[in-house]
What we know:
By secondary structure, this protein is mainly alpha-helical. It has helices at residues 4-20, 24-31, 47-54, 56-79, 84-99, 112-122, 128-141, 144-154, 156-159, 172-187, 190-198.
Amino acid sequence: MMPSGSQSLILECLAAFLCGSIPFGLLLVKLAGKGDVRAHGSGNIGATNVSRVGGKALGVVTLLLDIFKGFLPVFLAKKAGMGADLLALMALAAVLGHVFTPWLKFQGGKGVATALGVILAVDAQLMVLPMGVFILALWLTRHVSLGSILAAAMVPVPLLMANFRLFGPLKPVELFSWLVLVALVIWKHRENIKRLQEGTESKLWGAKKEHANG
């Protein structure tokens, strides 16, 4: 029989996965009478594509909800006293839920907003470097996708810096969970990376938008 502690952790990770799996972008666009967001633009259910199909306001709401669905389960687990290593597993589960949502045949979004939510729940300090890199990359290139990729790559850096640690030494399961989360977000941007290499990726402003990060 599985120890009760292990059972509890599995259930908590499952709850985080299901919370992360809620396809808010798809639901909001349908409720707004705009049809299936996956049939337009990049075909993604994220805020960027939602704003293209349903308008900027709907995109902002989607962004906030996607952040919140990652933030909530991890925040509650942290308040309940869960350690940093298990919080990292919870964070990964929530992002996996968004990326591989079971309600859409395991075809979800790219996980950027949900990843932001889980990081804010664990420790908002962890977002300082990634957010700075994102803003700088966006300002220099106008590519949301490039900013997202570079920001994701920066997430492990503060985790490895002792002066940012609130929970003691970094445990292997914690590092593994964050590295998988980062790799997952970058992997979901593989088509964007290809377009960036080809010079065909759309920009946030100033150019005709043929593709999207959403």
